[in-house]
Write a structure and sequence with these properties.
By secondary structure, the protein is α+β, with helices and mostly antiparallel strands. The protein has four domains: 261 residues, 3-Layer(aba) Sandwich (Collagenase (Catalytic Domain)); 78 residues, Immunoglobulins (Immunoglobulin-like); 174 residues, Jelly Rolls; 92 residues, Sandwich (Immunoglobulin-like), CATH 2.60.40.3080. It has eleven helices and 36 strands. The strands form nine sheets. Strands 2, 3, 4, 6, 9 and 10 form a six-stranded mixed β-sheet that branches. Strands 19, 21, 22, 24, 27 and 29 form a six-stranded antiparallel β-sheet that branches. Strands 20-23-28-25-26 form a five-stranded antiparallel β-sheet, with no helix packed on it. The two termini are 52 Å apart.
């Protein structure tokens, strides 16, 4: 199945204006059939099961159409409880409640035939567009019976939504979607990352009723891009809701209009939607241009002679209507047990979800650091911002051990940390309906002397080793000592990846190390890991920082497959390594190590991020951390001081001079490297006599602006200076 549609020009629109997107952007307005095909391909028998359910719905639809024509069935108003789940990382993707409510109003306008543009609908189809008596209302009780606004804001990396992971398993939806037999879940994300080839923006997708064996499968939700909620753009959401209510594209079972007639592509099964190839981001201006493009029926004066270009289930730029037949099909889906939609609109469920409630609820507290860092130097500060939701907040209260707040009763405050260790920060928010709290931990680093050489840690002592710390932003499962396995002794540290929720990240910090004065030493460790499936995407990496943890860079960041293949491979069982499954890593061998070798106080942390792929994650073990080798002798330290190694001018726009003094004749090697350790100038290798030496570098100004490192090697002893070219 082809997944990619052609470029659109600025000013054309799909389901509206899309004016916020650049000319070069490509738009895939709906990816429903792509995700369904992916699901069928991965699950033998699923297509046949869906076809059976499709036939059941089609049969009952035809019966409903006959009854409607004979006026045998009185209209019943169906109400659908809706909940918006906004996934965000603290950025602009955290859209407002007002944007969701605006989109919901547009949906109700479309389904209630209340749009201001209904009088402009092409005449043959104007009378076919009727009030569906389907209404979408925010749910005001969650599955636990708690009062909710119907719009929740969740800090979650899944705002970068993986279509492949989500399609492979409903577990990807855990912690986001609610029971789909009780709610229409609309999951709002920053982007939808396609499984196939789609070079551009996917607006949304869902699954038609009966796709899955279980109606409670969380994939019975709508996934929707946050950039298409305003004004007429929200008709794209009406389009996806149409799929959720069993409607197909007017041009058939495909995501690609303009290719073949809908009847050839499976048809949409609706009697009054004319056969069409469909339209992409166009809207013919006259009846001539809307003339039937497939087999022309008679009489030519009937509506069936024309394309319904303005149909919301087409891809045109002027969506305005559903047809009477489509309305019957959607109402039929709500009356059917196929897909569980009938329970969603049942009277008992409407009471359970409290759609008629006022939604006056206590707020749900949340906050974030504005730089997404929860590590700070002793005496440093972080700016903390409120991200609470679910109700209007009347009072804020910030508290925390070892923290001083500039504005303890405001939604935004600076917090200064004057006590080393772990500071627990709590935000309490309240209104007349109640209160709630959110707690996060901050690591306050007092970078004292680096660990004495040699340094080794195998986690055999009681408690967390001295100078080590754990940062657990979500206060859930995190690094912990275990006796399940160890490279040596009986203990190691591990993350219980079989139970850690998807997307959670945990940090294990070790004490600072002096790399500058121990240039010949190595930092090594042992790990053991097995992935759950070949598509697992757990992440492990080792990061380093030169500024108390304010910024971090990766030293070791293997792919998931490399991480697993070097150790335990793949297993669906909770992983416990055998002695032969421990892998050895020497960080000194990785290029980025050099970036940190110029500092006497370098922080390292071990990071494990639970994957979001289907099948969940697996356990990760860490043991035997060693920083050892040949420590720089006291005599070398004295030499480093006496040699008066310097660079001038520094910074420079071109040439620089290396200056040093020798007490005795010595063998000298000078190298200039870039930040990844690549040699960028020819080396200087020569025997020098005693006295002051001056060596010119970059005479021809071949170095571009940036940061470089000058290595001075005196009789095998290395000293390093940073050189800045402006």
């Amino acid at each position: 199945m082809k997944r990619q549609l052609s470029n659109i020009a600025l000013g054309l629109a799909l389901m509206g204006s899309y004016m916020s997107f650049a000319q070069s952007d490509q738009i895939q307005p709906c990816n429903t059939y792509a995700v369904m095909e992916d699901y069928f391909a991965a699950n033998p028998g699923a297509r046949e099961n869906y076809k059976k359910n499709e036939a059941i719905l089609q049969k009952s639809y035809m019966e409903a159409e006959q009854n409607r024509g004979q006026n045998k069935t009185a209209a019943i108003q169906y109400t659908i409880p809706v909940v918006f789940h906004i996934l965000h990382l603290g950025g602009s993707e955290n859209i407002t409640d007002a944007q969701c409510i605006s989109a919901l109003n547009q949906m109700n306008s479309d389904y209630g035939r209340k749009g201001s543009d209904t009088n402009t609908i092409f005449a043959p189809f104007k009378s076919l567009y009727i009030n569906s008596d389907i209404k979408f209302m925010l749910a005001h009780k969650d599955p636990n019976g708690s009062c909710v606004s119907g719009i929740e804001h969740i800090y979650d990396s899944r705002t970068n939504w993986s279509q492949a992971s989500a399609g492979a398993s409903s577990s990807y939806y855990n912690g986001v979607a609610w029971d789909p037999t009780k709610y229409l879940n609309i999951i709002i994300v920053k982007q939808i990352i396609p499984q196939g080839t789609v070079n551009g923006t996917i607006v949304g997708y869902t699954y038609l009723p009966g796709t899955f064996g279980a109606n409670t499968d969380l994939r019975n939700s709508i996934i929707y891009h946050n950039g298409f909620l305003s004004g007429i753009n929200a008709r794209s959401l009406s389009h996806e809701a149409g799929h959720w209510l069993s409607l197909k594209h007017t041009f058939g079972n495909t995501n690609n209009p303009g290719v073949v007639c809908g009847s050839t592509a499976g048809g949409d099964g609706i009697a009054d939607t004319p056969d069409t190839k469909g339209n992409f981001s166009t809207c013919p201006a006259s009846s001539t241009n809307t003339a039937f493009t497939c087999t022309s029926p008679n009489p030519t004066n009937s509506a069936s002679y024309y394309q319904n270009v303005e149909n919301i289930m087409d891809y045109s730029s002027c969506p305005k209507n559903f047809t009477s037949g489509q309305t019957t099909a959607m109402r039929n889906a709500l009356a059917s047990s196929v897909g569980g939609r009938s329970n969603v609109v049942s009277g008992a469920n409407l009471t359970l979800t409290d759609v008629n409630g006022l939604g006056n609820c206590a707020p749900i507290a949340d906050f974030l650091s504005t730089n997404n860092s929860y590590t700070v130097c002793l005496g440093g500060s972080l700016t903390l911002k409120d991200f609470s939701y679910n109700g209007t907040i009347t009072t804020y209260s910030w508290t925390g051990n070892g923290a001083a707040f500039a504005a303890p009763s405001a939604s935004l405050t600076a917090a200064t940390f004057n006590t080393p260790g772990i500071s627990t920060i709590t935000l309490n928010v309240s209104n007349s309906n109640g209160s709630s709290v959110k707690t996060r931990t901050v690591l306050v680093q007092n970078i004292g002397a680096a660990m004495a050489m040699p340094y080794a840690e195998s986690f055999e002592m009681v408690g967390l080793p001295s100078g080590w710390s754990i940062v657990n932003p979500d206060n859930g499962i995190t690094w912990a000592k275990t006796t399940l396995a160890a490279y040596s002794g009986v203990n190691s540290y591990f993350v219980d990846g079989t139970n850690d929720p998807a997307g959670e990240v945990d940090y294990l910090y070790m004490p600072p190390l002096d790399l500058l004065n121990n240039p010949n030493d190595t930092l090594t460790f042992k790990y053991a890991y097995a992935r759950n499936t070949t598509t697992s995407n757990d992440i492990f990496k080792v990061e380093a920082s030169l500024d108390c943890g304010g910024t971090w860079g990766a030293v070791f960041a293997p792919s998931n497959s490399s991480l697993a293949n070097a150790s335990g491979g793949t297993t669906t069982n909770p992983f416990v390594p055998t002695p032969s499954q421990w892998a050895h890593v020497n960080l000194t061998n990785y290029p980025n190590w050099f970036n940190y070798s110029i500092s006497p106080k370098v922080l390292f942390r071990f990071v494990f991020s639970e994957g979001t792929a289907a099948g969940g994650g697996n356990n990760f073990y860490l043991d035997e951390i060693n920083f050892s080798g040949t420590a720089q002798p006291v005599g070398m330290k004295a030499l480093a001081k006496n040699i008066s190694f310097g660079l001038y001018p520094n910074p420079t726009t071109g040439e620089a001079t290396v200056k040093f003094r020798l007490d005795n004749a010595s063998k000298i090697v000078i190298e200039v490297l870039d930040v990844v350790g690549k040699k960028v100038l020819p080396s200087v290798e020569a025997d020098f006599g005693s006295g002051e030496q001056n060596i010119s570098l970059n005479k021809t100004k071949t170095l571009s602006a940036g940061i470089y490192f000058v290595n001075l090697n005196v009789n095998g002893a290395k000293m390093i200076k940073k050189l800045i070219i402006e």
